[in-house]
Amino acid sequence: MDSLKFDGVDYQDDSFEIIAMVLQQLSEEGEPWEDLIETCLLASAFCAQEAELHPDDYMTIIRSVKVTEEGIYGDA
Prior knowledge:
This protein is α+β, with helices and mostly antiparallel strands. The chain has helices at 15-28, 33-50, 55-64; strands at residues 3-6, 9-12, 66-68, 71-73. The protein folds into 2 domains: 1-31, no CATH class; 32-76, no CATH class.
């Protein structure tokens, strides 16, 4: 994805940054981060299904993501 129109504004960026921006806005509008985590995990499972990814391959991707005090790392 190269661009996205959001609230009437065209954004030129990569997919992760656009999704992060939307999540930040949802948080600012009162959506708890804990609920957003669950929504994102469910959305990632939807993406895996749409991509016809084998469940084991999906879980390999999920397990590759590491959250540490220094940052977020992984192959996803």
